[in-house]
């Protein structure tokens, strides 16, 4: 068998666009799942991938009835493309920071209800940022705590806002506020009308628990371990919906319950013992590339906290 000889010439905008399509397909796990992310049809995606394979003279992936999978060459190209995009982003950030006008991107990721929490005053912070740096392009999104931490570490976002369940080496943590989390049931739940003196740990532990689906906060492990988890809902809104079914008990921040339920709708079970404190904070990568927009927003947060 002869050795394949091929030389790739200059890589331009068109090839970079095709590589972005390819990496998105890989991260979505296939063509169909990538349609929504890319906002283009599956046939268009297929054309991009075919053109890229032709341009590189490589078979990057297998697709068909057996599903989507990368070839060994495809995995190598994917890894190299991610390195390329990282280098391009670093170059763009460097240029933006050298510019006398504060511009560039500021990507903010929020866990659950933090963005709407009045204690953070996000609208006022955005207002101040825009007054001082109107050319900054702001992207705001919601994700799970684990996803936010990973994106901050990978520098796919500048600042994350998460419950502080643990600390990860390489991240800086800025405390925002503290909540008391309590174990709640809905008024349709059998325990709602049980007198406090009749409630025991054994009775409460036997109830179906709706859990968050992440490793429990260190202060809550001893409360959750004896219980009977029967369902999972990460976000407070969906957890509250499950509790409202009258079939589950679950932990929620007291402040969130006060803001989002009617008086008497939920009952805190064994409130003196079934509670723990949960801090929320902003996280940034300690060794992240320079970003003036990020630094300005952190200054605004710190000024708000010290006011």
The CATH architecture of the largest domain would be 3-Layer(aba) Sandwich
Gap between N and C termini: 74 Å
pLDDT < 50 stretches:
none
CATH superfamily of the largest domain: Periplasmic binding protein-like II
- Taking all Cα atoms into account, the compactness measure Rg is 24 Å
Number of helices: 11
* CATH C-level class of the largest domain: Alpha Beta
Task: Write down the oligomeric state.
Answer: single chain
CATH topology assignment of the largest domain: D-Maltodextrin-Binding Protein, domain 2
Strand count, sense and barrel status of the largest sheet are: 7 strands, mixed
Mean pLDDT: 90
Total beta strand runs: 11
Order of helices and strands: HHHEEHEHEHEEHEHEHEHEEH
What is the total domain count? 3
* Global geometry: globular
Helical proportion, percent range: 40-55%
Indicate the proportion of strand residues: 15-25%
The structure class reads alpha/beta
Describe this structure in words.
This is DNA-binding transcriptional regulator, LysR family. It holds the Pfam family LysR_substrate. GO terms for molecular function: DNA-binding transcription factor activity; transcription cis-regulatory region binding. By secondary structure, the chain is an alpha/beta fold. It has three domains: 13-96, Winged helix-like DNA-binding domain superfamily/Winged helix DNA-binding domain (Arc Repressor Mutant, subunit A, Orthogonal Bundle), CATH 1.10.10; 101-176 and 280-306, Periplasmic binding protein-like II (D-Maltodextrin-Binding Protein, domain 2), CATH 3.40.190.10; 178-278, D-Maltodextrin-Binding Protein, domain 2 (3-Layer(aba) Sandwich). The protein is 41% helix and 21% strand. It has eleven helices and eleven strands. It has helices at residues 13-28, 31-38, 42-56, 72-98, 122-132, 145-153, 201-205, 221-224, 236-244, 254-260, 292-306; strands at 61-62, 69-70, 105-110, 137-142, 159-163, 171-186, 208-211, 228-232, 250-253, 266-268, 275-285. Strands 3, 4, 5, 6, 9, 10 and 11 form a seven-stranded mixed β-sheet that branches. Strands 1-2 form a two-stranded antiparallel ribbon. Strand 3, helix 5 and strand 4 (137-142) form a beta-alpha-beta unit. Helix 1 (13-28) crosses helix 3. It is globular, with a radius of gyration of 24 Å. 24% of the residues are buried. The model has no long low-confidence stretch (mean pLDDT 90).
């Amino acid at each position: 068998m002869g050795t394949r000889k091929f030389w790739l010439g200059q890589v331009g905008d068109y090839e970079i666009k095709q590589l972005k399509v390819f990496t998105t397909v890989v991260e979505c796990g296939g063509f169909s799942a990538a349609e929504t992310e890319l906002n283009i049809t599956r046939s268009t995606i297929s054309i991009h991938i075919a053109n890229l394979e032709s341009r590189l003279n490589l078979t990057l992936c297998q697709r068909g009835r057996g599903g989507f999978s990368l070839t060994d060459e495809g995995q190598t190209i994917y890894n190299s493309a991610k390195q390329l995009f990282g280098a391009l982003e670093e170059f763009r950030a460097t240029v933006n920071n050298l510019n006398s006008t504060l511009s560039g991107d500021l990507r903010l990721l929020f866990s659950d209800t933090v963005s709407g929490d009045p204690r953070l005053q996000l609208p006022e912070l955005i207002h101040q940022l825009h007054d001082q740096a109107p050319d900054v392009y702001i992207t705001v999104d919601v994700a799970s705590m684990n996803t936010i931490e990973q994106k901050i570490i990978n520098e796919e976002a500048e600042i994350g806002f998460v419950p502080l369940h643990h600390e990860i080496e390489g991240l800086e943590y800025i405390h925002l506020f503290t909540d008391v989390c309590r174990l709640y049931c809905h008024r349709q739940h059998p325990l709602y009308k049980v007198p406090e003196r009749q409630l025991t740990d054994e009775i409460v532990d036997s109830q179906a628990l709706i859990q968050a689906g992440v490793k429990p906060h260190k202060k809550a492990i001893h409360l959750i371990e004896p219980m009977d988890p029967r369902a999972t809902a990460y976000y407070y809104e969906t957890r509250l919906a499950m509790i409202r079914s009258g079939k589950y008990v679950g932990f929620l921040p007291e402040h969130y319950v006060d803001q989002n339920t009617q008086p008497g709708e939920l009952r805190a079970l064994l409130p003196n013992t079934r509670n723990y404190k949960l801090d929320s904070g902003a996280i940034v990568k300690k060794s992240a590339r320079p970003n003036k927009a990020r630094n300005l927003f952190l200054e605004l947060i710190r000024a708000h906290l010290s006011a």
